[in-house]
Amino acid sequence: MMPHYHLEGFESTWRLVRETLASQKFRVSTPNGLELAVDIHYTAGKILTVNIVSAGEVSKATLEPIMNEIARLGLYRGDFAVIDYTISITERIRDGNYSISEELREHRQL
């Protein structure tokens, strides 16, 4: 895997899971052991749309450095000014993907 030098120097440990031209998906481990899944979508209008899923409660003291690191990622990619975010709290985080059936794709059923 190619190193991502722009992730160095962060307080938390960031691991890139998936990347497209308009988005990035990360797994994050905070210094206090909290596990997060962070999806960042680089949208028009200088807005980062971010979904954060936490395996446990997120205190303000934990969230602030994470948001600062998200801001750094946004500024690495462009001139973003706002982080529009949602936080969900769960017991476990599981990644996966779901294949859309050939029939649905062929007929574009709604």
What does this structure look like?
It is built from 2 helices and 5 strands, in the order ββββαβα. It has a 5-stranded mixed sheet, with helices on one face. 22% of the residues lie in helices and 35% in strands. The model has no long low-confidence stretch (mean pLDDT 89). The longest helix has 18 residues, at 60-77. It has helices spanning 60-77, 102-107, and strands spanning 13-19, 23-29, 35-43, 47-54, 82-89. With 110 residues, the chain is of the alpha+beta class.
Topology:
Layout: E1 13-19, E2 23-29, E3 35-43, E4 47-54, H1 60-77, E5 82-89, H2 102-107
Parallel strand pairs: 4-5
Antiparallel strand pairs: 1-2, 2-3, 3-4
Task: Label this structure with key terms.
110 residues; alpha+beta; five-stranded mixed sheet; 22% helix
- How many helical elements? 2
Strand content: 35-45%
| Helix content bin | 10-25%
Report the principal-axis shape. globular
Number of strands: 5
Please summarize the sheet with the most strands: 5 strands, mixed
What separation lies between the terminal Cα atoms? 38 Å
Low-confidence blocks of residues: none
Class per helix and strand makeup: alpha+beta
Strand order of the largest sheet: 1-2-3-4-5
